[in-house]
Amino acid sequence: MSTEALSPAEARLLFRSGLVTPTAGWAAGYVQADLIIVPKEQAFDVLLFAQRNPKPCPILGVLNPGETSGPLLAGGDIRTDLPRYAVYVDGEQVADPTDITQYWRDDLVTFIVGCSFTFEAALQEAGIHIAHIDQGTNAPMYRTSIRCQPAGRISGPLVVSMRPIPAAQVADAVRITSHYPSLHGAPVHVGNPGELGIADLGHPDFGEPVEIREGYVPVFWACGVTPQAAVMESKPSLAIGHASGHMLITDARDSSYLV
Amino acid sequence: MSTEALSPAEARLLFRSGLVTPTAGWAAGYVQADLIIVPKEQAFDVLLFAQRNPKPCPILGVLNPGETSGPLLAGGDIRTDLPRYAVYVDGEQVADPTDITQYWRDDLVTFIVGCSFTFEAALQEAGIHIAHIDQGTNAPMYRTSIRCQPAGRISGPLVVSMRPIPAAQVADAVRITSHYPSLHGAPVHVGNPGELGIADLGHPDFGEPVEIREGYVPVFWACGVTPQAAVMESKPSLAIGHASGHMLITDARDSSYLV
User: Fold this and answer.
1) What percent of the residues of chain A are helix, what percent strand, and what percent coil, each to the nearest 5?
2) CA separation for the pair A245, B25 (Å, rounded)
3) Angle CA(A217)–CA(A56)–CA(B253) in degrees, nearest 5?
4) Is A167 strand, coil or helix?
5) Structure confidence by residue, pLDDT tens digits, A37-88
6) Are A220 and A190 in contact (CB under 8 A)?
7) Contact status of B51 with chain A (Cβ, < 8 Å)
8) Average pLDDT over residues B222-244
9) DSSP assignment, residue A206?
């Protein structure tokens, strides 16, 4: 069976059994998600940061303190069911394990955060090419000069991802992504990186650069790296995320977030 | 100047100066909101309850612990700017003051929660009559047999408000309210109160009954009483809400929540 045709539960079981791979293209039609796990004492600030900055921080679900499963991963275990994790102590990455059971504590709260895979699939279905997918890399992402609304100890800049879109398809790209308001939604900016404080599109802060061809317009979407970067800047004693591109495959269908 | 034409800041100043009145119809075009204030130790559970139950609990803003103003009430003071409050100790109402300065503590967190006034105005503009407004009462509200997703110590039933709509206008009512997803949005149910566990529409749990005339269909929307009722059932040491119908008039325009 192709990885695209696997169910989310089948994919999670493979990762639990030790398979390590980026998850792009797996379990087509199902929502993939970022992971942010912090101790309970930081959890209110994280949830409030997300409430105040919903475009970059679309919370799909929150597990109770100590809980390792939930409706988005029925029968699953958040400690083993992603292919790879990133573990941070005092804001510095200390490990990238394929299983976080040894780090687990009863006071850890898991945040499941929407990512752009869902709207990228919708853009592709509409015939809009995504440059970084065509070249097999991560989207270029940039710290902007726009500050998020802080919450308690958590603050940071809005991080955006950029996709070059043919001028004739920009309106379609806006319209299509606006139908997924809880998965980053419509772009935050179209066309002028300078207004976002981005000096050079060729040097992204995260991911890889992509070529912007003649007749293409750079379009910027709020990015799920925003909350991760802000949380890490607050230097929590322990925090765990997914490793880049190694996402949680949830049981939620992309279509359930279409409005 | 008519109360309808007042700005939100002018209205809040009048209430701060001692005027006591229900706020329906005041400052037309601006969002009115419910209030839930709890100590910081309960705040994560309240915010998580709202995240898990967004239809009945549309959070418009959260003030930092101890903070008494914010962008939704620029220059205002949450302790004085509503015409009347309800104060609860251990889940029991103990007072209904017009000013809560004497109860204020530095650990209190204010939640500003959307209400149905915005979509009711949009329904009326579309020529749909609202029975309880025509008869000058509060909407009839019912505890349903649907349980909300609990969060920590907070749990309770979904509470719905009911508006009888002419059968020919039900689709319009659904369509119009669906454009306000962060202010309760589309109905949760159309037509059959029994399926919600409502035995008798003539005996609402909150508000007043309205007549359902021949050819009208009872339509049910998620109601902002839901979080208030659930929070009070958890018997927080102190909680403060708005008095029924005596809302916070915010600086946000109704149109800013239209999608």
Assistant:
1) 30, 25, 45
2) 51
3) 95
4) helix
5) 999 999 999 999 999 999 999 999 999 999 999 999 999 999 999 999 999 9
6) yes
7) yes
8) 92
9) B
| Residues recorded for chain A | 259
B59 lies within 8 A of chain A by CB: yes
Question: Cβ of A40 and B44 within 8 Å?
Answer: yes
Which helix (H) or strand (E) is B117 found in, with range? helix B117-125
**Beta strand ranges found along B176-223 (DSSP E):** 189-190, 216-222
d(CA B37, nearest CA chain A) in Å: 15
Quick one: which of B98, B74, B46, B106 has its CA closest to B226? B46
Residue B93: strand pairing partners: B88
Grade residue B182 by pLDDT with cuts at 50, 70 and 90: confident
Query: What distance in Å separates the CA atoms of residue A201 and residue A185, rounded to the nearest whole number?
Result: 22
pLDDT at position A122 is 93
H/E stretch holding A120 reads: helix A117-125
Q: Which of B226, B255, B254, B21 lies closest to B111 in space, CA to CA?
A: B226
Owner of token pair 């061809």:
A213
Structural contact between residues A80 and A101, judged by C-beta atoms closer than 8 angstroms: yes
Q: 3-state DSSP call for residue A176?
A: helix
Q: Name beta bridge partners: B113.
A: B34, B59
Task: Tell me the pLDDT tens digit for each residue of A94-108.
Answer: 999 999 999 999 999
Question: What sign for the dihedral angle of Cα A240, B45, A46, A40?
Answer: negative
Place B259 in a pLDDT band, splitting at 50, 70 and 90: confident
Domains and CATH numbers, chain A: 3-115+235-254 (3.40.1640.10), 117-227 (3.30.2040.10)
Do A6 and A26 touch, CB atoms closer than 8 A?
A: yes
CA distance B168 to B145: 28
A252: phi then psi, degrees, rounded to nearest 5: -80, 140
**Contact (CB, 8 A) for A163 and A61:** no
In angstroms, the CA A177 to CA A123 distance is 8
Which of A43, A52, A181 comes nearest B259 by C-beta?
A: A181
Question: Using CA atoms, how far apart are residues A65 and A48, in angstroms rounded to an integer?
Answer: 16
Mutate to test the interface with B, among A36, A38, A41, A44 (most CBs of B within 10 A): A44
Task: For chain B, state the CA radius of gyration.
Answer: 18
